[in-house]
């Protein structure tokens, strides 16, 4: 057993990380902010939802209930209206102004005009939890929806997003590429574990009811899996877990970080104001 304090800390990190079940979210949190990763997955501090996470969870819940035949298409908007305030309890950021009304109205319009025809598809999996072991690393993935298109026989992995990565109708490809990483990872292990053989990957941006789709590419998927694995190795070799650039990422740190109340760097920033 290690004797020095720093050795004991390193031993603790190694023990936690070696026994961890990894996901895209956990790995991407390290890429976003190593210190956020440490607080979340090593220190296991209490996380706090925010306006954006609550909105996303609520929207996902409604769609999950629809695809599980717990809600009829004509009930979606009414459910959204009646349960919105029960599920979205955190205030939105103070800027830009009018965000709460904008999000509410966009969601209501989406469910009022909902036109996804389930009859065109065979539903294979809904929120299916996929567990796998890759190079002795345990991992988990949970795609929103996997479908088979009846006309073509093609398998589709579909993921819902409540963000809007479009600027005047033009996709923000940097953000789209981040989502593609997540869905390639889901698709790769869906194919490996469930033998679903994903043909098409679709992103559904709910608030603006826009789609972005691309064909599954084995080489690109393999690149993402290699990125995933190499990033985990980077995490396991990390000793400091520094913060992200707080000035550059001020909006994220102030409004999106689920562990900001435990972040000493965030507290230092507040004292410096």
What does this structure look like?
There is one protein chain. The protein is α+β, with helices and mostly antiparallel strands. The chain has three domains: 73 residues, no CATH class; 62 residues, no CATH class; 113 residues, Lambda Exonuclease, Chain A. Helices cover 48% and strands 17% of the residues. The chain contains ten helices and ten strands. The strands form three sheets. It has a five-stranded mixed sheet with strand order 2-5-6-9-10. Helix 5 runs antiparallel to helix 6. It starts with a helix and ends with a helix. The model has no long low-confidence stretch (mean pLDDT 90).
Largest pleated sheet: 5 strands, mixed
Mean pLDDT over the full residue set: 90
Structural class: alpha+beta
What series of H and E elements makes up the topology?
A: HEHHHHHEEEEEEEHEEHHH
Q: What portion of residues is helical?
A: 40-55%
CATH class of the largest domain: Alpha Beta
Shape call: globular
Structure summary, number of beta strands: 10
Rg, Cα atoms, Å: 20 Å
CATH architecture of the largest domain: Alpha-Beta Complex
What CATH calls the topology of the largest domain is Lambda Exonuclease, Chain A
Distinct helical segment count: 10
Strand order of the largest sheet: 2-5-6-9-10
Beta-strand fraction estimate: 15-25%
Spatial gap, N to C terminus: 44 Å
